[in-house]
Amino acid sequence: MKRTREAPRNSRGLLPAALALATSAMLAGGTVAVAGPQQDGAAPDNQRASTGNTVSLHDVIPAPTRVSEESGAKFHIRWNTGIHTPADSPEAEEVARYLQRQLRPSTGYGFLINRDQPGRNDIVLRLDGSRAKLGDSGYRMDIDRDRLTIHATDPDGLFYGVQTLRQLLPAKAESDFPRHGPWKVRGGEIVDKPRFERRSAMLDVARHFFEVGQVKTYIDQLAQYKVNYLHMHLSDDQGWRIQIDSWPRLTTHGGSTEVGGGEGGYYTKREFTEIVRYASARNITIVPEIDMPGHTNAALSSYAELNCDGKAPDLYTGIEVGFSSLCIDKDITYEFVDDVIREVAAMTPGEYLHIGGDEAHATTDEDYRKFMSKVLPIVEKHGKTPLGWHEYAKTEPSESAMVQYWGTTNSNAMVAEAAARGNDILLSPAHKSYVDQKYNEDTELGLDWAGPTTVREAYDWNPGSFMESVPESSIAGVEAALWSETVTNSDEIEFMAFPRMPAIAELGWSSSDKLDWSSFRQRVADQGPRWEEQGINFYRSEQIPWP
Predict the structure, then answer these.
(1) Which of 102, 192, 210, 255 is the most exposed place for a label (fewest CB within 10 A)?
(2) First-to-last C-alpha distance (Å) of the chain
(3) Going from the N-terminus, what domains does the chain have, and what CATH number goes with each?
(4) How far apart are CA 204 and CA 249, in angstroms?
């Protein structure tokens, strides 16, 4: 059973009625003023992001690598501003269409795409960046009175430059309906590239199920902060959320409930493919997780033969962990794992498949090693690279495998040994980057086993030097993980993720010399009016000087 889908809030796919008015005026050679709410008068400096005043080029999250502002110069987006894109790059044209969809609703302007010579007052997307200086995902933005140009070596860099451009416009540029301008961007130059390749978020859809539209909403929010991976926790004791044709009861039975006894839900293959494609169009790769050998009660309840005693347990709706395990000595267990990994791998074009491996307290250490020795080759057989929680590092996976650290200290012998063997390490220390933890003891939502975790605590650590005996060269990146024991809808996802998810995103993108709490707290404050325009239900932390 699935709930009625919730459409993504702040959808950008529809052309507003005001565009027809703007286009008519363009053809007539005139300008158009689209009716909208009256803007407030002068505001304090820390409200500049929510007014018609221009935003400083420094006020971006994640913090750019290098910024230089040109005093007095401004680029004006007007009714006749177009978007120029290379003629020979369909991917760059997709970025242009994304930008077009973002800016049309609030401005009412057409932003016609051209592939010939860029005109005066155009936004120009160029694939002419230096790979040596910008890498695969970096960009350079030049802004003067006549033109705003984003240079990159590939379309990924153009996309990230577009996210920066969004933040350089007034907060009202995020509106779903036409607003009055002016639409100005300060002159100058931004040169920017990521510190780590992997800037990830995780959404647990197993404890509570989230519909396709809710996942899309979160994807759009992640993309704004240059997050490029979404790890989806698809199975656990409380629910199985992905259709597996060869084992249909996983969803019809195992997906029929959730924490607290709700009706649960699951994604059909078509729906999951829709999520994968939607994320890909926003430079986000979906990483599916099928947790094993523990966290498997939903599967064990669905198929009795997966249990050592041949008896299926009842469905589980609590939040305790560590009590379930696949039967390690049965051949059917590995037939099951092979089928599941084969079908999930076929739905996800990304390199990695997450096999969980955490909190397998009901499995002996000997059985755990035996299980992983059979499962890791299955993952590789189906063309994927294994990724798992750090407990599985004790089985010494191949050098290509990735290890995800979720502990609450900055020292772990298994992780250090894995790094020494050549495994990349993904950091999600629970007391820092688990955004499902309470902000403080009075927070209504969230858990506190690793927290509470304030915004400052989420931000104030350096991934490159965090783990003892693990060099920065072994760090693949960071992940903001959101478990859903207490989270049931999009408003609650947003409340827990904002502003801590942007904090983790900055740690993954920005160079270490740019990580500064006093700067970040002010830049987050400037995001508040933007989140209000987008309808994001963020937590107004007392640590942030909100407007």
Answers:
(1) 102
(2) 43
(3) 66-192 (3.30.379.10), 198-534 (3.20.20.80)
(4) 21
Closest CA to 286 of 272, 268, 265, 266: 272
Write down the pTM of the prediction: 0.91
Contact 181, 77 (CB under 8 A): yes
- Identity of the amino acid at 352: Y
Phi, psi of 147 (to 5 degrees): -165, 150
Here the tokens at position 160 are 């990230």
CA distance 511 to 33: 42
Query: Is 246 within 8 Å of 184 (Cβ atoms)?
Result: no
Active-site choice (70, 197, 343, 359)? 359
C-alpha dihedral sign at 391, 395, 397, 399: positive
pLDDT values of the chain reduced to their tens digit, one per residue, 547 residues: 333 334 333 433 333 334 333 433 333 333 333 333 323 222 333 333 333 468 999 999 999 999 999 988 999 999 999 999 988 899 999 999 999 999 999 999 999 999 988 889 999 999 998 899 999 999 999 999 999 999 999 999 999 999 999 999 999 999 999 999 999 999 999 999 999 999 999 999 999 999 999 999 999 999 999 999 999 999 999 999 999 999 999 999 999 999 999 999 999 999 999 999 999 999 999 999 999 999 999 999 999 999 999 999 999 999 999 999 999 999 999 999 999 999 999 999 999 999 999 999 999 999 999 999 999 999 999 999 999 999 999 999 999 999 999 999 999 999 999 999 999 999 999 999 999 999 999 999 999 999 999 999 999 999 999 999 999 999 999 999 999 999 999 999 999 999 999 999 999 999 999 999 999 999 999 999 999 999 999 999 999 999 9
